[in-house]
Amino acid sequence: MVTPEVQWIAIFPELILALGAAAVLLVEVQWKPRIGRLGLIAVFTVLLAFGFTILQWAQAEDALRVGLTGDLVGFSGMILMDGFAVFGRFVLISIMGLGLLAGWRFIESLGRRGAEAIALVLLATTGFSIMVASNNLVMMFLGLEVGSIALYVLAGMTRDKTRSDEAAMKYFLLGSFASAIFIYGVALLYAGTGEFEILAIRGFFRDVIVTRPAVILIGMGLVIVGLGFKVSAAPFHTWAPDVYQGAPAGITGYMASMAKIAGFVAIARILITGLPQFDQSWVPVLAGIAAVSMLIGSVVALVQNDIRRLLAYSGIAHAGFIMTGVVGGATKGMLFYVTVYAIQLVGAFAIVAAVSGSDSSASDIDEYRGLAKRSPVLAVSFAVLLLGMAGLPLTSGFVAKFAVFTEAWAGGYAWLVVMGLLMSVVTFGFYMRVIVVMFMDEAKDEQVAVSATVRWAVGIATVGTVLLGIVPEPLLRMAANAFSL
Amino acid sequence: MLTWLIVVPVVAAIVVVMVPSKREEIHLPLGITLSVLPLALAAYIFYVFEPIAGFQFTENAVWYEPWGISWSLGLDGISMPMVLLTTLLVPIALGASTGIKTRRKEFVANTLLLEAGMIGVFLATDLFLFFVFFEVILVPMYFIIGIWGSDGRKYAAMKFFLYTAFGSALMLAGIIALALTHADQYGSPSFSLADLMSLELSQGDERWLFAAFALAFAIKVPLFPFHTWLPDAHTEAPTAGSVLLAGVLLKLGTYGLLRYNLGLFPEASVDAVWIMGTLAVVGIVYGAVVAVVQPDLKKLVAYSSVSHLGFIVLGTFALTSGGLQGAVIQNVNHGLTTGALFLLVGMIYERRHTKQISEFGGLQKVMPIYAGFFLFMVFASIGLPGLNGFVGEFLVLIGSYTTLPVLTVIAASGVILAAIYLLWAYERVFTGVPEKEENKILSDLSPREIGLLAPLAILVVVLGLYPNVLLDKIAPSTERVLDHIEATTGYEVPEPGRLGDVFVAKGEN
After folding, report:
1. Complex ipTM value
2. B503 pLDDT exceeds 60?
3. Interface residue B10 vs chain A (CB under 8 A)
4. Domain residue limits, chain A
5. Which of A313, A322, A385, A321 is nearest to A352 (CA)?
6. Residues of chain A with pLDDT under 70
7. What is the C-alpha separation between A452 and A36, in angstroms, rounded?
8. How many CB atoms are closer than 10 A to CB B37?
């Protein structure tokens, strides 16, 4: 009997996250402590997982330096520890930390069920973390499902609200449909190549010339559709506004960014690493998806009156912008963009939760009237985050857009870049509308209560947005070093 | 030293924000005091500025190596007058803002940040950096119009923002294309102006790049037919906003055309002379004709800007010594006179809360000092010999007559039209006997207001009588632009073009 090869270091972050989730649940059952204690476990888990990610990063860079990149494949080819995977984990875990901070008030408000929410957050991150690190497509599917199912439940966390139920149901039905499409695509890729492993698939096409690639092309298309759904790219975006609007605001930012980060890393991994020979086929498709996403997202966002729907549609537009980076065939801009957008999104939803309530209640744009007078710091932060999303220079959003557009232009997709730039102007339109309401309209009387955790989350997101806009070099260098095997 | 010009206003803004909101009376005086620092610095730089062609006081620090972007600043004869003008107008604009009662702290901070951004645009010698500043200044200006403007302010602010953002989006595409072309030809991308000026562009590429840049700047200037945001923005903006908008922000467009379009795309510029010249002349005549019929004093001055800026663009694309020198000096002149006119309109608006010309009449009797200043600035704006406007317009007309005679003749009619609409407005507002009761009790200018107008008036006379104080330092740089065009294209400036300037500058090479 052959014992499977086990490299524990390869999955330490995921292991710790999963154990952390279990610990939270068990401690809750046994001692029913104050929620703060459970929070401490979560913080400890995040820090530990983060520490191991840094370790893995150092390992990946060492391996690259001495040329022993074969060492970075673990579990008989299931899990990768290349820079790409580690960067993805790094971002996922950081965003989870920020997301927990931003959603803490919501978790507290759940009472005894707060433990479930914490555990689900940890589990979702575990799943997506496996997804970004997997070399095997089935493994990737497993990660995707672990993460997605945790998110479906999180979306319905405030189950006494119909809107939350509706969001969870919609997310679940459409999400599992998309997962099914994804796995069907994986099956067809297997049928065409006889391989599940991305690196092996690449090797297969290097050695074999496929004369009739129809099965492979269909498989590839289905994979793109499935992942396109996860990152809410048009035309697979219809779930996003309802889910963003119905899910508890305290946690929506986290949910949305997780799916986007993992989805884009997976898209890049499968297409750029696994199927580079077929770029004649997938690049135009992605370019089309990017164009449609930017167009639909930014134009429809113009007429939204609910901040969360507005952010949802803007998220569709951003899926298009990020996709532009993948079209260029490079990953640096895409990774940078995903990271800074996730930070902005979590920060923005933390503010939405503070102003409109952290549960599933509506967040009409009217509630933000005169926010600059009621809570100047919050209003300025929101403005910075929104301008960051719009891509104003000196914010991280500008550097991100610049990076992806440069890559797409270098890849020969000038028309997509011009369209992206014009759509960026349209996004200014609706982000500015929110700023107008906050700064130029008469104030309402309601005061805004901001908890310390939200203040921290918003502070970190805002400072990060500005800092990464002025000094983008460290993160850009990291993204550039995040090689894929 | 140039970095300080940008840093000082930013620090000043932070200092102002630090002062608690309750101490309302402090913010404005503090802001004015702090904004004198950049002015002093700029004045010192003007004093030590050498009349040579290249960039001076250059600074260079790598920002992000793989993209080839850097914090590069430099000052030459084209940007130096603009920096001086900016630093001069900011304290004056702040000084004119005592009428702003709400959220003063934010107002002062926004104005100072705007100053930092505007100076940055003029100093940047790296296209990435230039774009950053070019785009960032939209935000403080947007807030200045949108928060402290009059009734239609939100609409005007949004229109201003989206129009200009739209223009710069295509320019960004152009900048990316240029940097990547550099990567193709020299192995690594670069955004440095000097590097990009040496690119070999195919005719097609050069033409569309020219168009992308020209569109961004044409919207900013604004050239006809992209001018529709301007009257809205001006009418709604508070006085300080209007002064800075007309005085400096519009100049970003004319400055950009001169620095970037002529510098980066000489071949396309030579080909586009007729198109740009025609648009400029249409703007001159159209702006003037529309200004004649404006019932609103502020709108009248706004449309006069459209007309006057047409001269600057015409001079730029005349591609002669006189035209370019005239364009640069007219940038300054227009900033001084139109800035002053907006200040004057603001002063009467504070007293009467209306800008309708028909509401006034006979103010000469009640407010003689005010009327005196107004008439003086009207004359400067029309281009009365001995005042600054004459120098600029004369240089432009003489310079462009060599290359674009027909257009120049039409453009000259703009001078006459200017006399019509400005003097007619003066007549309706100031002459006769005051009939309305409200007008009879108006108070004349206070010492503070005279203090704001006096420096502008003095400069109007100085530049009118002895323009060489600036022209000497401008000329080498504008000559360099022409040298570059002649060196890189087959174009030669027709004969009197490089000799026929009346104010032949010393230091010309």
Report:
1. 0.90
2. no
3. no
4. 8-481
5. A385
6. 1-4
7. 13
8. 17
